[in-house]
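This part of the workshop introduces the protein records we will be handling. A record pairs a protein's sequence with a compact description of its fold. Comparing a sequence with its tokens is the quickest way to learn the format. To make this concrete, we reproduce a full record directly below:
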Amino acid sequence: MQPGVEADSVSITIGIDEKLTQISPSPSECCIFRVHKQLRGVNEKAYEPETVAIGPYHRGKHSLQMMEEHKLRYLKLLLKRKNESSADKYVTAIASLEQEARRCYAEPISLSPDEMIEMLILDGCFIIELVWNFEIACLRDKNDPIFKMDQIDNSLQRDLMLFENQLPFFILYELFDLIEIPNNHNKLIRLALCFFSDLLPDRGHSDLVLGIVPNGDGSNKKGNWRFIPNTIELQEAGVKLVKIEGASLFDIKFEYGVMKIPPLTIEDRTESFFRNLTAYEQYCPDNQLTYITDYVGFMDCLIDSPKDVEILSRRGIIDNWLGDDEVVSTIFNKFSDAVTGPTSHFQYADIVNRVNIHCGKRRNRWMAMLNRNYLNSPWAFISILAALVLLLLTSTQTVFTVFPRK
């Protein structure tokens, strides 16, 4: 303050109070963030919608405008199916939740209350009608391009899993209560899981979406541990890698020198899928919920090069729809960039420790070298057996020569 200038305490107080009313909620109140710059910079396209904008963050982008008209079309079909002539009851219900929904977003939303309510209704009803139409073919319009072109269908599955492309779930619950039987929210979850089934990298298990704790060897989550060798080095240490069927993607096991890994399908959308779920875990207030981050980190240990991918593919552990082992290797090698973790609650800490103990034993490495160099084919085994027989016969002859029978 300059000498001789008195402070206007009232003016200062008013100014501070106005700023306090304009500040966004604390992060703990938010659940829908934007991906931070460092993480986005690794692969920006993985976080960007291709076909549809859900919520305010990507709203208004020119490349996504085609689906905005489709949202209106879906609402019109919904009202017709429910024999309703107006969206009034949906507006009334969502209007009471508009401020609560706005607080779920970490960044200030420039939409007016009316625009926000309209967006929540159109986006929410679009999602509900989409998952219903996916489940029940007779509900679809015969000219609906979503179900006439697999490319659009696949792109929508990807876009609806994006971290930034979301609505608060309570908005979907409220709309579903108005459209269907109230409080039948498990039905909505089941419809969503069915819709995303083609996107899941384990092809058929819903654990990945629900975030259920894996049933594997994650009980010992704390303590000191170090990363395990890659696939090639594990084989050199005598570790056998096998595919295990009928398990959740997370349920990796290691016992008696055998690592059992559920199969992983890798296609065009897999990187985006994993990256966005990893982003969700990075922003989750409970830092113990890092199942995707831990799984991807574990697979990154196994995959250092295209040769590792090739071996895992031969074992049936990786189903590579991309066709290029180097591309898959690069995807996993870059997953850890700008990602925090693994934490002290690493889900695979117990497995990692036991694998490293196994690999550190000289006997295991010696046996692996013996198997690799001398016992890896029937002819090699026969050659060794013949050599042993010859050695035995030679030794016997030597004994009889030195100690002739009387």
